Amino acid sequence: MSGPPSLQDLITAVNQVAGNFSAAESRACFRDPVIIVSAPRAGSTLLFELMSQAKGLWTVGGESHPVFMTQPHLRAENASFDSGRLTKAHAEGETAHKIRAGFLTLLVDRDRKRYMTMEPSARPSAFRFLEKTPRNALNIPFLCEVFPDARFIFLHRDPRENIASIMEAWTAGRQGGFVTFPGLSGWKRGDWCLLLPPGWRELNDASIAEIAA
Fold it and tell me: Is the pTM of this model over 0.90?
């Protein structure tokens, strides 16, 4: 694939990769993955960009939203959209394998060389994988099931600065590209930005500052 694939093309590619690797093989590829966990707007993008330049680290080139979009049942905790959290129960065997296949499909090294376009004999059989997506903060049990050997980096920012930045994201909304659940049913403001935490409905009458905190 050259350039961002369409969702349907990505789903097709993921299914093909999943068929070429067994679940055990896809699990063995990811050696001690490094997963960055933080609140939104905490500086994880900068940390990710710096770390991704290290020799031997592989990434999907950015955040992993496209990987999860290939599995529609993982968009939220359940059909009622009670939160964006994913638990160990969401990572049943086939789903975990498909998520790893999704990462393999988009995997690139620091020079943007794609893992899946390399000759099989030239691919490293196991590699160090770096992942950063804000939603990881809600999905640690899920990620531990998909990547049993994962190592986590917990990044935090001064709370006042972090909350102020989250407020800016909410104010920018669609114009800033921060809407994650457009037209969320049960949400008076219509669009939800950034992470969808458990108990979000209780924030219907809250201020932007209270939502951000």
Answer: yes
